[in-house]
């Protein structure tokens, strides 16, 4: 895939997850103001995704990011102090969009079981679409010294809160560690599949097995 096509694919995933509207909602804004205010910052992040995926964090330079986003150095430093802040922004944006989509899916899923299965499917579809950057960010977030580590912990807390909000009105309360363990299972499965560049068939199997695991753990038959 050439650079132009790669950037187009990334933007398509971004829009599928809700795009600028979801970002504005997550940031608590209304109207056109937040969209305009965050447009340039988000465009830099989108352009940087392909650079980080192709070169890795260590090899990618600020000049690479400038070229990819087609912005001036002055514009870049208006929004970011360095390339790590760009990666940090990509991670936060990715989490915000994915969680926003999970919340939207609550409105159309008929039962907790259907929602859990749809959510797991979306999680792995997203990873399949932009795998290399997901793997890079996940591995970086696992480093205790990384700025991404704190964002990972907050993402887990948000996901745990979402599970509780959706499931506990209808099902028996669970020990929070149960939810956390299932989030860890999703994360570990994702890292393994991305690290091995698993086939679509393996990913489809993982979607089914992980969804079954969540449903069996959180929605046991009475």
TrEMBL record:
Domain of life assignment: Bacteria
Molecular function, one GO term: DNA binding
DNA-binding region: 61-80
Keyword annotations: DNA-binding
InterPro entries linked to this entry: DNA-bd_HTH_TetR-type_CS, Homeodomain-like_sf, HTH-type_Tx_Regulator, HTH_TetR, Tet_transcr_reg_TetR-rel_C_sf
UniProt domain HTH tetR-type: residue ranges: 38-98
Statement: the UniProt record of this protein carries the keyword DNA-binding: yes
PANTHER family associated with the record: ACREF/ENVCD OPERON REPRESSOR-RELATED, ACREF_ENVCD OPERON REPRESSOR-RELATED
Protein name as annotated: TetR family transcriptional regulator
């Amino acid at each position: 895939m050439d650079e132009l096509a790669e950037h187009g694919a990334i933007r398509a995933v971004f829009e599928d997850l809700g795009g600028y509207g979801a970002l504005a909602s997550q940031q608590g804004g209304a109207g056109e103001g937040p969209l305009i205010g965050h447009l340039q910052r988000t465009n830099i992040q989108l352009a940087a995704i392909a650079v980080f995926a192709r070169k890795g964090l260590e090899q990618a330079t600020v000049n690479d990011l400038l070229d990819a986003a087609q912005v001036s150095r002055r514009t870049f430093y208006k929004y970011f102090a360095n390339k790590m802040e760009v990666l940090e922004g990509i991670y936060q944006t990715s989490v915000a969009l994915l969680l926003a989509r999970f919340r939207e899916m609550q409105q159309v899923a008929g039962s907790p079981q259907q929602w859990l299965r749809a959510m797991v499917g979306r999680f792995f579809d997203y990873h399949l679409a932009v795998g290399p950057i997901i793997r890079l960010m996940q591995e970086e977030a696992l480093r205790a010294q990384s700025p991404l580590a704190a964002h990972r912990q907050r993402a887990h807390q948000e996901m745990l809160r979402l599970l509780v909000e959706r499931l506990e009105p209808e099902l028996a309360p669970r020990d929070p560690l149960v939810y956390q363990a299932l989030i860890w299972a999703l994360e570990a499965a994702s890292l393994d599949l991305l690290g091995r560049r698993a086939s679509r068939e393996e990913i489809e199997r993982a979607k089914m097995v992980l969804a079954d695991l969540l449903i069996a753990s959180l929605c046991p038959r009475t």
